[in-house]
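Subject: complex prediction, re-run

Hi both,

The earlier run crashed halfway through, so I resubmitted it with identical inputs.
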Amino acid sequence: MLVYALVAGVLFGLYFSLVGIGLNLVFGVMRIVNLAHGDFLMLGAFVAFGVVTLAGLDPLLAVPVAFVVFVLVGVALYKILVPRLQGSLNPEMLSIILFFGLSQVIQAITTIFFGTSERSIPSSALGSIFTTARVKLFGGNADDTGGPIEFFGQSFPASWVTAAATSLVAIAFVYLYLYRTRLGTLTRAVMSRRDEALATGIDVDRISAAAFGIGLGLAAVAGVFAPFMFGSVTPAFGADATVTSFAVVVLGSLGNPLGTALGGVVYGICYMLVQTYLSSWADLLPYVLLIFILLLRPSGLLGRQVRVA
Amino acid sequence: MRHLLLIVLPLLVIFALLPGVYQNHLLLFNFVIFLVLAQGVNIIYGFTGYLPFGYVGFFGAGAYGFAITVMHYHASAPMAVLVAGAVGVALGLFLSPLLRLSGAYFAIANMAAALAVLHFVANPALEDITRGPYGVSLTGTFNPTLAYAAALIVLALTMGIVVFLKNSSFGLALQAVREDPVSASMAGVNVVRMRVIAWLASALVAGLAGGVYAWYVSVFFPDNVFSSDFSIFAIVFALFGGVATITGPIIGVVALYGVYNLIGFTTPQYFQLIYGLLIMVLVLFLPAGLVSLATRRGWRVP
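This time it finished cleanly. Structure:
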């Protein structure tokens, strides 16, 4: 039981890191609270449905599609919304309300087009591209895959492992972006001191637009796996996903993708332990955890002072 | 005094007379509830700058305070409404450490707190006390006429608090704290105590509103009374009219909730779409509310 909960916690945790990392990036760079984060996750899940049902392909192929599409959407949204918002008196507060409005719009449009029914994808569809490739290259039986994968004598759904592996790759890419590219260095400069970055001649607007796009792209990539990790997805799924992402981001530290990865793993393990031993109280966990972290260790975890009195 | 006579009294008289001429009493009742909630948001957001994204937590806690008092202690309804207010204040005290957080952190923590209270109340493990997710039914106290009257009393109390804040040095001190807490405390304002008082006043009116609401509808589920729509509507109504004024939230409720009911409930997703767009336009183009149209011209708005 314990071993199962721990390993499943790590697998879920890596996935949760991917869920939170886009939110972390957007808040870190722009001080904007993207309350529609979970809704972009939900849209990512719908991209996966599209790839599976319309094209009949492996949902893994939805990952690059979702990423590219939502990076573009993010840059466009940034150009429309953010400059006006940052001209206002209290952008951080108003961003909460603005993105809440956006989240309502996304939910409504998705509901109008797809209805409110729960959608799921058979988990054997995920990773089927590898199976096909292996059968073609090395021969063998196509039926023995999609089954569970064993760790420490416990078996776990293959889709969890795939999601965790993709998350690791995505986090690695975010790390490389932030620490090994010029744009990433500039992004970190904007994160630490927006005014000074502007004063040194950094094109803050361009950096922010890129960060916003990448943030939404990552959310959509995480969304591709949501149907496998949570069973099914409805247009209303976004609100819960947003709160979960906040819990993960707050647990980790802001501006550091490795921090969010850690936060995700800690969250995942807590989640699985509560799920295993106290299942009726599992729903409470993200909220209570979020409040306690905010109250007990806010400045250290979020990288700036948030307590005033 | 002038504000009480010119704004609060006419408002109360209108809502006291309307049930005689207008048939849809539930709608009128909802108007009163949203007036209370929007003014409650006004008290905490308008005067202290804390955005209570989980404001519904107090409302739902009040509703359940009412239900539990009636179910388990067989108290009379007015008594139970007072208990509901007390439950709101108690929850406010319990959550007062959240006031240490600022800006977005407070809003998020408050939202998380409301959701935590919801999942606590709706937990099947507490079925004996709260009836868990299966909802409560309070047919014994059902009396819409009296409940409507009680809602008007709660509205009067809420309006009284806002008028006091608008016209007293206490309210002025709160606004000073909102603008610059450090300078305000240098000027001798007890920052923490003032914030907590405003927070508890806001929790009190939401708790009372929740109790009255439970009395009026008498059958409800946790998801009804903890619906985040209450928080969002109250915030949007207050913002739309303009916070830190007496009239702003009233204008907001009458205008937006009126529109809400004109569009109708038949196609909720179209409504949600229009509403979401409205919120976005509001934030982008009119962040200080409708009253800012008048204040920009130099007119004073109470």
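Residues 2-232 of chain B form one domain.

- K.
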